[in-house]
Amino acid sequence: xxxxxxxxxxxxxxxxxxxxxxxxxxxxxxxxxxxxxxxxxxxxxxxxxxxxxxxxxxxxxxxxxxxxxxxxxxxxxxxxxxxxxxxxxxxxxxxxxx
Length: 98
Hints:
By secondary structure, the protein is mainly beta. Helix content is about 10%, strand content about 25%.
């Protein structure tokens, strides 16, 4: 699969990166494309003197002890959320829809 480059070499190849890619076997409607755009959520991470501060615009913060583990809602978590750095690892994600 090639993204960002025409097969006839009429244009230079795309020189950049692509994030949050979704591939479909059909063209999305305008409404479907808009839904993807609106449901995109990125978590901001900042280190502040022994704590990690997570920020996100919408959704429910979830955590798990392993990246492929079972994620559960973080009780009463609102953005910004401060998490103390510890010996045990934690992975976070934001759930946008139930």
